[in-house]
């Protein structure tokens, strides 16, 4: 059995914003998350990489409780993830999620996509939600698309709307699961640039991506997963220039 990797990170004082301890999850017989210990500090940007099927998406989905876990504990801002109900909705709202496939509401305008959650879940007034939505749409560079429908936008624009929609909930942490994998190459940077901006503004982020440029530019730490385990955890420069495990070396030789 491979050794567990101890988390060694310099971070500000205080409790980690996100903490996974002893997390195990199975899909039937498949042990998809194995003894995951991971702490993410406020303002930290963690890039998660690893081969397909290594459990990266499941890890993200466990953090906002789209997937349950069978063992271990996950806390957000010192609060344990509840099983269900109102408390879960509240805590899930603290965790913004951006998927590979945009997942915008097709029959709502861009503006409505961004105001819906704040009005329904955060109980903001329509006027407040709209004001904030417009600011966020400007911030991600699609302020002039507010009245369009998602299908009228390019993939890069849709993904930036999805980021604005997640930010509108005022999340404590943002999870990105391969946010640029479904995009045409010329649109990748417009999305990554928004994410780099968020990172620089101090957002706590977990980003599953194979975009090594982003990792080098914005990540405090790279976590390498394989076979449901965290195999390596290091600063980007260290990880890319001097990976310690054979599995990480092999993986990097294929993608770099
Ligand atoms: P990654 O995102 O790293 O590609 P995933 O977390 O999506 O990996 O998947 C990890 C493993 O769990 C894979 O073997 C995948 O087939 C399996 N898996 C993912 N979701 C389910 C599910 N809902 N039911 C059964 N197996 C699943
Ligand atoms: Mg995945």
From TrEMBL:
Catalytic reaction(s) noted: a polar amino acid(out) + ATP + H2O = a polar amino acid(in) + ADP + phosphate + H(+)
InterPro entries for this protein: AAA+_ATPase, ABC_ATPase_HisP-typ, ABC_transporter-like_ATP-bd, ABC_transporter-like_CS, MetN_ABC_transporter-like, P-loop_NTPase
Main localization (coarse): membrane
Entry-linked PANTHER family: AMINO ACID IMPORT ATP-BINDING PROTEIN, GLUTAMATE_ASPARTATE IMPORT ATP-BINDING PROTEIN GLTL
Source organism phylogeny: Bacteria, Bacillati, Actinomycetota, Actinomycetes, Geodermatophilales
Originating species: Blastococcus colisei
Sorted UniProt keywords: Amino-acid transport, ATP-binding, Cell membrane, Membrane, Nucleotide-binding, Transport
Protein EC: 7.4.2.1
Protein name: ABC-type polar-amino-acid transporter
Gene Ontology terms, MF aspect: ATP binding; ATP hydrolysis activity; ATPase-coupled polar amino acid-transporter activity
């Amino acid at each position: 059995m491979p050794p567990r990797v101890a988390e060694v990170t310099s971070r500000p004082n205080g409790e980690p914003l996100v903490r996974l301890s002893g997390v195990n999850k199975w899909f039937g017989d498949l042990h998809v998350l194995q003894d995951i210990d991971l702490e993410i500090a406020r303002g930290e940007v963690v890039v998660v990489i690893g081969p397909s099927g290594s459990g990266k998406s499941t890890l993200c989905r466990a953090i906002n409780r789209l997937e349950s876990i069978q063992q271990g504990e996950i806390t957000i801002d010192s609060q344990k993830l509840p099983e269900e109900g109102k408390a879960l909705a509240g805590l899930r709202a603290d965790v913004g999620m951006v998927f590979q496939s945009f997942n915008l509401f097709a029959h709502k305008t861009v503006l409505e996509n961004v105001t819906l959650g704040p009005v329904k879940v955060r109980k903001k007034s329509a006027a407040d939600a709209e004001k904030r939505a417009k600011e966020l749409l400007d911030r991600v560079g699609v302020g002039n698309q507010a009245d369009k429908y998602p299908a009228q936008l390019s993939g890069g624009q849709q993904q930036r709307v999805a980021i604005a929609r997640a930010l509108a909930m005022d999340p404590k942490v943002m999870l990105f699961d391969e946010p640029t994998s479904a995009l045409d190459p010329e649109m990748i940077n417009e999305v990554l640039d928004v994410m780099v901006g968020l990172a620089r503004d101090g957002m706590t982020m977990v980003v599953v991506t194979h975009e090594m440029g982003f990792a080098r530019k914005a990540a405090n730490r790279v976590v390498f997963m394989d076979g449901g385990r965290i195999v390596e955890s290091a600063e980007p420069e260290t990880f890319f220039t001097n990976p310690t495990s054979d599995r990480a070396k092999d993986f990097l030789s294929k993608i770099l």
